Structure formats: structure tokens, C-alpha cells
Amino acid sequence: MIRQAVLADIPDILAVAHIAWENTYSEIMKPETRRQFLEEFYTPEALGKALGVRPGGIWVAEEADAVIGFAQVVPMIGKPGVELTRLYVLPEKQRAGVGQALLNHVQAHFSGQPLWALVEKDDVNSVTFFTKNRFDKRRIVSLNLYGEELKFIEFRRGAGK
């Protein structure tokens, strides 16, 4: 089941984020980069604020009353549409349609608007996921995260070019 996240979900979202980040980025980013990013952007305070962002918000995927994945959307800065900034699913629940259900829910909620995503270029599973879902690769963006240079693919879907 997909539903809008509430404050009580924050501990579960944090748990999913830490597990998914380690699984996704352990071979892509340095441990210190991952640690610093999680400490800065995955805090109860940051997620609490994110719950109220409009247009946007956080949605969770549940199974047997447990959070197994989540998606976060924020307004796109300087471009029309919204950005899917986070879409993570527990490793043991991946490839079972959970990420697809979250994406479908977000797309339905923001239908008619461009949907953007920034994906680390070496995250093959995510690049494949967004490509399969008819997102267009717009450009490569280099970002310095805590002293580590990483390349990201900017994806966009919907509402013209």
C-alpha cells in the first residue's frame, strides 16, 4: 500500500534510507561521503520539514504495516515541474514492484507536470529503472559531495521538452 507519510513514519523512513544507501552506494561512494550525506540530509528534523513541502511530500510503501520503501518529491528549482529526490526500497523488497508502485503514485499525483530525477551515473539499477519508465536523459551533472566528485544523470519525464 502507498500512502502519504506522517511524522510517526520518520524512524522507519530513516531505517530504510540507511539500509538502502549502504546497499546502493557502497561500491559507488566513499564511506565518509555516505556517512556525511546521511548525517546532514537524513535526520528527523530534515524529514519532518520535508513532510510539509508543497508541491511535494513523502510517500511510503507498506507491507504488513511495515515501511519497506519511500519516495520524496520537492518543487523543481528554476524549471517547471517537481523533482523526485528520493526513491528507495529495502534491498530484499526490490524487483517486486514496490519502486514502480511508488513512482506510479507520484506520477499520478503530479500528472501534467514534468517529473525530474537526478541519479548517480554508476547506479546501474536506478539508471535502468528510470530509462525503462521512459524518462529522458537530459544531461550529465558533476557534483562535489564532501570532497568526492560524482557524476549524475539528470532525467525528465512528461510535459514536453
Give a quick precis of the structure.
The protein is 35% helix and 34% strand. With 161 residues, the protein is of the alpha+beta class. The chain is globular, with a radius of gyration of 15 Å.
Folded structure, characterized:
With 161 residues, this protein is α+β, with helices and mostly antiparallel strands. The chain has a single domain, classed as Aminopeptidase (3-Layer(aba) Sandwich). It contains 5 helices and 7 strands, in the order E-H-H-H-E-E-E-H-E-H-E-E. The protein has helices at residues 10-25, 31-41, 44-51, 98-109, 124-132; strands at residues 2-4, 57-63, 66-75, 82-89, 115-120, 136-145, 148-157. It has a 7-stranded mixed sheet, with helices on both faces. A hairpin with a 2-residue loop joins strand 6 and strand 7. The longest helix has 16 residues, at 10-25. It starts with a strand and ends with a strand. The mean pLDDT is 96.
Looking at CATH, the homologous superfamily is Gcn5-related N-acetyltransferase (GNAT)
Number of domains: 1
Termini distance?
32 Å
Number of strands: 7
Return the structural class: alpha+beta
Output the helix-strand order.
Answer: EHHHEEEHEHEE
Q: Choose one word for the global shape.
A: globular
Gyration radius, rounded? 15 Å
CATH topology tier name: Aminopeptidase
In terms of DSSP E residues, the strand content is: 25-35%
For the biggest β-sheet, the strand order reads 1-2-3-4-5-7-6
Helix count, per DSSP?
5
**Percent of residues in helices:** 25-40%
